[in-house]
Design goal:
The protein is an alpha+beta fold and 123 residues long. It contains two helices and four strands, in the order αββββα. Strand 3 and strand 4 form a beta hairpin. The chain starts with a helix and ends in a 38-residue tail after the last helix.
């Protein structure tokens, strides 16, 4: 049996999450002993100036004995981030096509002594 066949045989169940330049793969795999574990792979696409690209991958192996503690800490960390920073994705502000929500301009006062009076007849 080839190495690819072994990999296909080990993969039991999979889900994919596409998130911009990143893709997350959640795969249930089987150990040699027949038990299951989870791999979470982050794949991030990088494009070069010449149009070619490559992917960087990072992988986490998570075994059943660690599920409960891992989930508790993950939930705690996600709750902390949302509590501290809210749900707005701050990095979106730095994207080229970001459009800031319009502010209520009724309550903003501009000083009247901070302008130049231009007579268009002089131009």
């Amino acid at each position: 049996m080839s190495e690819k066949d072994l990999m296909d045989q080990e993969e039991i169940y999979s889900k994919v999450l596409r998130a911009g330049r990143r893709t997350y793969f959640f795969d249930v795999r089987s150990t040699k002993a027949g038990d299951y574990y989870l791999t979470v792979t982050e794949s991030k696409k990088f494009t070069h100036d010449d149009g070619s690209f490559h992917y960087k991958k990072h992988k986490i192996y998570l075994y059943k004995e660690d599920f409960t503690a891992f989930k508790e800490i993950l939930d705690e960390m996600m709750a902390y981030i949302v509590d501290e920073k809210g749900l707005e994705v701050i990095s979106e502000r730095h994207q080229k096509d970001f459009k800031k929500e319009e502010q209520d301009t009724d309550n903003i006062q501009t000083p009247l002594d901070n302008f130049t009076d231009v007579d268009f007849d002089d131009i």
